[in-house]
Description:
Elements: H1 3-27, E1 34-35, H2 49-56, E2 61-63, H3 73-82, E3 87-88, E4 95-96, H4 114-123, E5 131-142, E6 154-165, H5 181-184, E7 186-197, E8 205-211, E9 219-224, E10 229-232, E11 262-274, E12 297-311, E13 326-332, E14 340-344, E15 350-361, E16 377-387, E17 393-397, E18 409-411, H6 423-429
Amino acid sequence: MSRRAWGRAWLGAAAFLVIALAATAQAQVRPGDVITANDASRVKALVSPGVYYRIVKGMRLHIVATKEIDWPPPYKEATEKYSSQVRLSQDHRSLVGYVAGQPFPLLDANDPHIAVKLIWNNVFRPISTDDYDLRFFDCQEQYPKLGGTHRIINEVQVGHYAGYNLVGRTEVEPLPVDPDFKITNRLWMFALYPLLAPEAERGDGVIRYRYADPNRADDSWTWDPGARRVRRLNEAIMSSNTGTHTFDPDHYSGYNPKTEEYNYKFLGERKMLACVHAIHSPEVTCPYDAGASACPENWEIRRIYIVESTPRRGRFSAGGGVVEGKTIVYLDSEAWFEPYVDTYDQRGQLWRTNLYWLTYRDRPVPDARIAIYPFEREFVVGASECDVQGGMSAMCYLPGQHTPERECWYINMGAVDKDFCTVRAMVAAAP
């Protein structure tokens, strides 16, 4: 047998072994089971290494039956109308012909470009297509510890976490593309401001723009409340921890760096555990891991695509300031949102793990009066990033547990516009 044939045979056997182990692990968990640190090994093949670390540290999973997730009808209609005209560019980095909906609803595991297509499906995902505004949320930083006391090291409170999409709009006029796109080439605008706590950073904020031009980096600015001046941010900072905070902007909402700046490799499709029908909103603080996660919460078997992301050689590679060596993206095949993302350092060691708790309903909180939809949709109700090497974990509650704004999530309701996502608006909102 030739060396190449032997290599193919070995890879095939390895892939079969991984699938077999996952199938065995799936058979070992049933609805009604509660997974604790004592029996974390039961689900080791059903979660990412980062999630396994969290379970060992005390996070508990309540196993429930799998339930279906459907897309919002306007998103589904846009996919049916426009997806047939979408293709990858000649260099297989960018999209050509995209208007709205999912770019690539028909996927083939044997397609050599399936990985980048999966990532573009993640970019234009159904959870929010037009605009979103999360009002008053908070993040608590602490050290995860099995059975430890919840001791908050740092607490961050934010007034608005908002965004406006210029392309792919499905529910709020202008549809399906904002005319401003032809002028500015911006795909989306993001705003996070003002910080309400801690006091030393009160009034701080971030504005970020993403462009359709594959060779144009994101533009980002922050407001320094101490110096009372606007500062432009280096793009490499977007994938790194900012200030004293554990979370980095590229992982505020799953995996979100500029698509064309990375290479992608399809690692396969597996049945894995994820939280996509959370029962708590606001989320609850886990009493078993020193408050480093949300638990107990419902987890179910999901069909997950796995993609490896590595920085492209050039100014966005390690030599240009990006710190991570690779990122493993776990993408739910129905929600098209990542239940978790693991990042590895340049040595290939697990560095950070990002975990997201989602729910599927027609309103973000049970007693909503305004943010009520005629169909069910996904909401992120909790997010956590843990620095496995440094030990610090940030747990964000979306909505906050003690917020003055009860409904918090306003998705595709015209709650924010382009003017809201500007440096001028950020500065004006600072106390």
